[in-house]
Specification:
The structure is a single chain. The chain has 238 residues and is mostly helical. It has 11 helices and no strands. The chain is elongated. It starts with 13 loop residues before the first helix and ends with a helix. About 2% of the residues have low confidence.
Length: 238
């Protein structure tokens, strides 16, 4: 179980104390290349305690990454609970970027791991939860590309935007980041917000239901023309 960030370090059990101390030191030093001795000192534990829980420094770093993903997931779940699928997509993007620029070293470890590094189990969970949220969009008729393609596009765009901000500075509400977010949402759903005239949601739902689907009674050319008309309706609103 991952401890909330607002729990004082001294009140955590040894394993969580070591994880929190390592994460704090990584961010303070702006690198994960800190000594286990420094981690022990900040966590208030002995070397045998650290190695009992993590075996070696590699094990510690892998555990820190896993813990960071767990905290990321908890924060995202709390933020998006009760939101509509489209609002949750937008809020999830913003939270993802803010999480990364607020913890640049941890984020780089999470999303730009060393070559050959193992993927954290929570990273797979994060991807599956993203896929589930996109399927909710699909079920609502709001997704106009296949779910797996949408996952890849979102991961590439959000991760790229966050790493760009980490390297070059800036905030999650920087104009170019918002423009990228909205462009991705338009590509996935055909709209940039939840609202629109009555014909727009209907067109969007129909367009989503026609993705990669043959329609009896319509030729391929007729179906392509119908998709083009529907896409133009939703794009005009966006």
């Amino acid at each position: 179980m991952t401890a909330p960030d607002d729990v004082p370090l001294a009140e955590l059990p040894p394993r969580q104390r070591i994880l929190r101390a390592a994460g704090l030191l990584f961010e303070q030093a702006n690198t994960s290349d800190v000594s286990t001795r420094e981690v022990q000192r900040l966590a208030g534990v002995t070397a045998p305690t650290l190695y009992h829980h993590f075996k070696d420094k590699t094990g510690l770093i892998e555990a820190v990454i896993e813990d960071a993903f767990q905290r990321y997931l908890a924060e995202k779940r709390a933020l998006t609970a009760g939101l509509s699928p489209l609002s949750a997509l937008r809020a999830g993007w913003d939270m993802h970027v803010e999480f990364g620029i607020g913890r640049p070293v941890l984020y780089s470890l999470m999303y730009a791991p060393a070559k050959g590094g193992r993927e954290a189990g929570a990273a797979r969970t994060a991807r599956e939860e993203l896929r589930a949220s996109l399927r909710a969009l699909q079920d609502a008729g709001l997704l106009v590309v296949p779910a797996d393609e949408a996952v890849a596009l979102l991961e590439a765009a959000a991760t790229g935007a966050t790493l760009h901000l980490i390297r070059n500075g800036g905030s999650a509400d920087a104009p170019h980041v918002r423009q990228l977010r909205d462009a991705v949402i338009v590509r996935l759903t055909g709209v940039a917000d939840d609202e629109g005239p009555g014909h727009v949601p209907a067109a969007r739902r129909l367009l989503g239901s026609l993705a990669d689907t043959d329609v009896p009674g319509l030729s391929g050319r007729e179906l392509a023309l119908l998709r083009d008309w529907l896409a133009r309706i939703t794009a005009d609103r966006a």
